[in-house]
User: Fold TrpR family protein YerC/YecD from Pseudoramibacter alactolyticus ATCC 23263.
Amino acid sequence: MEVRREALVRALLSIEDAQMANDLLDDMCTIKEIEDMANRLTIAELLAAGKTFIDVEKATGASSATISRVNKCLKHGRGYRRVIDRMNEAEPGE
Assistant:
């Protein structure tokens, strides 16, 4: 399992631009999986911006369990926070 995860990480690191990222997502994931991942990122962004669980639930339609899981990852993990910070840094001049 670890070997497959490492291969996936290498594949993600090889992405050169948005089109390549979209192409890989389309090839690897179902539409529902992409929607779910995008929704989780939106949840993380809203929570990081200080929105309440109720606000996030209304904005995304996500279950309280999903919001709680994302919140836990946002607080104790490193992935969401780093990505959100990098996205926010890139926004002004894009």
User: Anything to note?
Assistant: The longest helix spans residues 31-48. The chain has one domain: 1-90. Residues 1-90 form a domain with the Trp Operon Repressor; Chain A fold (CATH 1.10.1270.10).
